[in-house]
Structures are given as C-alpha cells and as structure tokens.
Write a structure and sequence with these properties.
EC number: 1.14.11.33
Bound molecules: N-(carboxycarbonyl)-S-(naphthalen-2-ylmethyl)-L-cysteine, fe (iii) ion
Pfam families: 2OG-FeII_Oxy_2
Order of helices and strands: EEHEEEEHEEEEEEEE
Shape: globular
Organism: Pseudomonas brassicacearum
Protein name: Alkylated DNA repair protein (DNA oxidative demethylase)
Cofactor: Fe(2+)
C-alpha cells in the first residue's frame, strides 16, 4: 500500500506490506525507530568511503566459540572492532587478520550515524565501532543478544545497503515471539534504551541482484563499545 506519491519502493519479494517511502519513520519498539531511506542522500559519499575501509580490512568469515563458521562475513572500522574466534566474542583495537589497527571510521560514517541517532532523540551518540556485515544469498544471523558493549545506555545505529532482508526483533528471552521487519537499501534503524537487549536476528537472505551493490546485503552497525 502506498502512503504518498513520493518515490515509493516496492519489492514483490515481501508482498503487500512492503512499500516503503523514503522519509517514513516507523516505531518498532519503545525506543527503536526505522528511518526509511535515511541513508540514500548520503550514499555518493558513503560508498567510496566503505570501499576504502574494505581495501584495508577485507571481509572475512569468522568462527564462533562453538566452532561454527559464520555465514555472514565481517569487517570493522573505528577504534574497536568486533571479532569472534574459538575463545569467544570480544572487541579488539587491532584486526586479528593483519595485526594492524582497524581502519579509522570515515567522517561520513560518523556524521550519518549521528544524524540518524538525533532523529531518535539520542543527542550525543559517539560511536567508536562500526561493524560491517556482508550477507550473500542464504547467509543469516540467528537470534542473539548484543551485550559485549560496556555502555548499554548508548544506542545502536544500523544501516542497510543492497538486497533487502527480513529482520527479526524479539523480546528479552529467546523464546519470546518476534516481529519481522523488512529492511531495504538505505534504511537506518536506531535501537536504544530498553530495546537494547532484545533478541534479534536476520532470516536467510533471498537471492537477487541489487543495481548498486549486486548480489549482497551490507549492514553497518555503529556502537559505543569501549
Ligand atoms: C537490535 N546485525 O551485528 S542490525 C549484529 O542486520 C546484528 O546485520 C544485524 O545483529 C544485521 O549484531 C542487525 C543491528 C542491531 C544490532 C544490535 C541490536 C540490531 C539490534 C541490539 C538490540 C536490538
Ligand atoms: Fe546483533
């Protein structure tokens, strides 16, 4: 269903309810908002900066403490990067693959994350970590909580690029019912306060070809980790 005449985006992949309009804001939790298309006007600056980060710290698939290789490939920029291996999940100042510090967080990344946080009434967001997740068709992220960050009061800002994905937003226990929220190219989600410890995940990515990013979804997640 179309809400106005302003550049609607429809994907038959998700049937009816999936027309979104840039500028639309949806509340999905007490302190969580989806800002549809918020990143679109920034992408001519953002995508070249993303390419430069990925040159310095390429995507790689990591192993979980349980010994499984993640289907999602990761990289990071900023002072701290999230990593996992057989010994656990943690934030590190260095890329374990190169031994070098993670690439600096590009100014355009920080500015966009802060602009989005402001829209959700988080005025002083200072992200020190940007996790970059790449999903190819079939890749998924099973329901989990993020609790390795020291400041659980800071919000998390996530930006979706490329192919659409179905995000699952659950409750405070794994078995709680979850909502399904489709996320499209250019959408930003801001999660804060009471919603910070909710279980969440991403259903297996469906095959497709995005005009700008090809057969993948890239998600940037900004956090205050240290
Ligand atoms: C909601 N990434 O990297 S966006 C993750 O699309 C992760 O790649 C997903 O879950 C993705 O940990 C989801 C970001 C996100 C991050 C933390 C959250 C959503 C969250 C914490 C609480 C609630
Ligand atoms: Fe997460």
């Amino acid at each position: 269903m179309m809400r106005n005449n302003d550049n609607p985006i429809t994907l038959d992949l998700f049937a009816d309810e999936t027309t979104t309009t840039p500028g639309q804001v949806e509340r999905i939790g007490e302190q969580s908002l989806v800002l549809r298309g918020f990143a679109l006007p920034w992408l001519d600056r953002l995508l070249p900066a993303l390419e430069a980060v990925l040159q310095a710290a390429p995507f790689r698939q990591m192993v979980t403490p349980g010994g499984f290789t993640m289907s999602v490939a990761l990289s990071s920029c900023g002072a701290l990067g999230w990593t996992t291996d057989r010994s656990g999940y943690r934030y590190t100042a260095h890329d374990p693959q190169t031994g070098r510090p993670w690439p600096d967080m590009p100014a355009v990344f920080r500015e966009l994350a802060q602009a989005a946080a402001r829209q959700a009434q988080f005025e002083h967001f200072e992200p020190d970590s940007c996790l970059i997740n790449r999903y190819v068709p079939g890749a998924r992220m099973s329901l989990h909580q993020d609790k390795n960050e020291r400041q659980l009061t800071a919000p998390i800002v996530s930006m979706s690029l490329g192919l659409p994905a179905m995000f699952q937003f659950g409750g405070f226990e794994r078995s709680d019912k979850s909502q399904r929220i489709p996320l499209f190219h250019g959408d930003i989600v801001v999660w804060g306060g009471v919603d910070r410890l909710r279980y969440h995940g991403v259903l297996p990515l469906k095959a497709g070809e995005h005009p700008r990013l090809g057969a993948q979804r890239i998600n940037l997640t900004f956090r205050t980790a240290g």
